[in-house]
Design a protein that fits this description.
The chain has a five-stranded parallel beta sheet, with helices on one face. Helix content is 43%, strand content 18%. By secondary structure, the chain is of the alpha/beta class. It has one domain: Rossmann fold, CATH 3.40.50. The relative contact order is 0.11. The longest helix is centred in the first third of the chain and has 24 residues.
Length: 166
Amino acid sequence: MPDMKRRKFMILLGSAAAWPVAARAQQPDRVRRVGVLMGISDDPEGQVRIAVFRQALQALGWIEGRNVQFIYRAGDVANARQFAKELLELRSDVILANSTPVAAAIRDTTRTTPTVFVQVSDPVTAGVVQSLARPGGNLTGFTNFEPSIVNKWLELVKRVASRISL
């Protein structure tokens, strides 16, 4: 029973901590612009990711049309710099970048607009961030590949197919 009370207390405490964030998110005085730049426009997986992103923001109190506006640009990565410039001209408050070439285009276009990237294989080698621990600059995000895991993959391959030489 004490464990149940502690759990309820932690839930209440977490909810109370979230109130100020939700209150700020719901203030109608300014509509925030979120630029979304994707490398492929007709990618079904990308569309699902955008839907989940929008739902997650909505759960945090960011409602499209009320306090947030999404500005989408998508297409061939050869046009990524042009799209990045458009998002900046439309005064995006923050940018969501999907893929390494798109994140690099954002990096080359702005040093001030906060940008969150996803699906960047090696952001350090690509020059998108200084390091994973301390990205520096205006870009930060999530990598879909951790280079330190390569040794584990090779170890697994050796165990599964011991006759393979590397």
